Amino acid sequence: MNYNLSQVPKRTGKPRESGLTMVMDKGLSIREVEDMLSIAAPHIDIVKLGWATSFVTPNLKDKLKVYKDAGIPVYFGGTLFEAFVVRDQFEDYLKVLDQYDLEYCEVSDGSIEIPHDEKCAYITRLATRAKVLSEVGSKDAEKIFAPYKWIEMMQAELNAGAWKVIGEAREGGNVGLFRSSGEVRQGLVDEIIHAIPAEKIIWEAPQKSQQVYFVKLVGPNVNVGNIAPNEVIPLETIRLGLRGDTFGNFLTEKAKKRFKLGKYSSDRRITQDE
Ligand SMILES: O=C(O)[C@H](CS(=O)(=O)O)OP(=O)(O)O
Q1: Does the keyword Lyase apply (predicted)?
Q2: Cα-to-centroid distance, 126 and ligand 1 (Å)
Q3: What's the CA gap between 5 and 8, in Å, rounded?
């Protein structure tokens, strides 16, 4: 860090298993990637080239090299996996992973319904050649699963070999884990967090209020994803209690007694009852 400041929570170091920031790149130019990495690389753990943007991105190999040289792994969005599966081209998908030397990949069923044992079989097969991020939750706002279903699917996908399970929210943060307003489905999240180890889950949380929610619920080293490139540094300050929203969360009792905290900056942790 640039200067000494006490009462800042300890962040895990790279390569991390918890405290991951997954960035969604939905078509940055190579120059934009270089710019983003020049300022935010220490805080980026993994990058997703959103949905099937890798299909149309020019100079894809050159772009991937920029990430590789910075030591940041890249994977292609789950929608691309689904685009191959729905066309009965899974074998071609495997060739794509080889062609681009990808060490991570996503398995999702957000756009199509894949029988769950079939989805798990894809995870198991892919896990022999890459780290698999499997996504749970639909992109269809009408499709609401009970919490026990989310938990069953997440557990089965981890058992099938997924490295992490992702909670769906899309780029907008308005489906899956969240209501259409962006409000967190707190009961759902609460049940998931009690059943699945926190370090195994990546919560898609593109909106600031959603990032704040998860930092308050899980702590500074929560895994979050679908972070926009220009939100990486702001997110890091939220994790560290250095933005108003989490300002009081990591201060000592002594510091908190000295000055009254604004309601906005309350250190209140979110609890099960909310
Ligand atoms: O599910 C996602 O987070 C994304 C992006 S969006 O839903 O198309 O906005 O899809 P993915 O295919 O995993 O990148």
Answers
A1: yes
A2: 19
A3: 7
Name the residue with tokens 């749970």. Answer: 136
Distance (Å, rounded) from C-alpha 52 to C-alpha 66?
Answer: 19
Query: Are 106 and 133 in contact, with CB atoms under 8 Å apart?
Result: yes
232 neighbors 225 (Cβ within 8 angstroms) = no
Q: Whose CA is nearest to atom 7 of ligand 1?
A: 170
> Are 139 and 109 contacting, i.e. CB atoms less than 8 angstroms apart?
no
Query: Which residues is 135 bridged to in the sheet?
Result: 166
Taking residues 47-63, report their average pLDDT. 98
pTM over 0.80: yes
Could you tell me if the CB of 79 is within 6 A of ligand 1? yes
| Residue range 110-126, pLDDT digits in tens | 999 999 999 999 999 99
Helix runs in the chain, H state only: 30-40, 53-56, 60-69, 78-86, 90-99, 116-127, 147-160, 186-195, 208-218, 232-239, 253-258
Reply yes or no on whether the pLDDT at 179 is more than 50.
yes
| pLDDT score recorded for residue 268 | 60
Please report the pLDDT score of residue 270 as a whole number: 54
CB of 78 within 6 A of ligand 1: the answer is yes
The answer to whether residues 169 and 22 touch, using CB atoms and an 8 Å cutoff, is no
